[in-house]
Amino acid sequence: MQVRYKIWLEEGEHIFGEGLFSLLREIDRRGSINQAAQEMHMSYRQAWGRIKKAEERLGFRLLTTRIGGEAGGGAELTREGRRLVENFHRFREEVDRAIREAFARNFG
Amino acid sequence: MQVRYKIWLEEGEHIFGEGLFSLLREIDRRGSINQAAQEMHMSYRQAWGRIKKAEERLGFRLLTTRIGGEAGGGAELTREGRRLVENFHRFREEVDRAIREAFARNFG
């Protein structure tokens, strides 16, 4: 038997979770929304839509896009975007460790 | 912004989570599958089906039912059922506390 979980941030509505975290991390690695979307088995349009929606809900920009257009150019995380990704990464690791420990204590 | 999560136990397939936990706790309180199902806005049949499926997957009985038939008589947790509910309860509380603390550290 093993434990599974899903964790996300919301404020009335869903703001940030595993999907967006992975997408932003891929964009950070690849410098391209297009390549990151492919990696995540999404269309460019889907990826862009999710980012725009999250930016609206968060009230800050997650990405800056460089010349060549959103698809052709490049994209990188803003300072706030990077901080959110880093905080979520650390949060996730802390939660993951705590859940494994609690599982071992109660079901191990 | 607040954190939300879902947590469950599985072994290849879903075994035990929030829904079954609440249902069994209601049965324990009320001594009746029927009343517990009503409280959970489920039909008796749904409640019974979920319990049977979980029992199959867990490999032990969760409930004993008393004379009068499954609906008319009464139901109570088996020793193993009670232990599972108690362990899940404690597990959930530990996880909940850890998630709140990790959230405060990283997003507070």
What would you note in describing this structure?
Two copies of one chain form a homodimer. Chain A has five helices and four strands. Chain A is of the alpha+beta class and 108 residues long. Chain A has one domain: Orthogonal Bundle (Arc Repressor Mutant, subunit A). Chain A has a two-stranded antiparallel ribbon. The first copy, chain A, has a two-stranded antiparallel sheet with strand order 3-4. The radius of gyration of chain A is 16 Å and the shape is elongated. At the A-B interface, strand 1 and helix 5 of A face strand 1 and helix 5 of B.
For the structure shown, list the relevant keywords:
homodimer, 108 residues, Arc Repressor Mutant, subunit A, two-stranded antiparallel sheet, 19% strand
What is the arithmetic mean of pLDDT of chain A? 93
Seen as an oligomer or otherwise, the chain set is homodimer
Give the N-to-C terminal Cα separation of chain A: 9 Å
| Count of distinct strands of chain A | 4
The low-confidence parts of chain A are none
Number of helices of chain A: 5
Physical arrangement of strands within the biggest beta sheet of chain A: 1-2
> What's the CATH topology label of chain A?
Arc Repressor Mutant, subunit A
User: What global shape of chain A is seen?
Assistant: elongated
**Rg of chain A, nearest Å:** 16 Å
Which homologous superfamily in CATH is the superfamily of chain A? Winged helix-like DNA-binding domain superfamily/Winged helix DNA-binding domain
Largest interface: A-B, 25 and 25 residues
Helical percent range of chain A? 55-70%
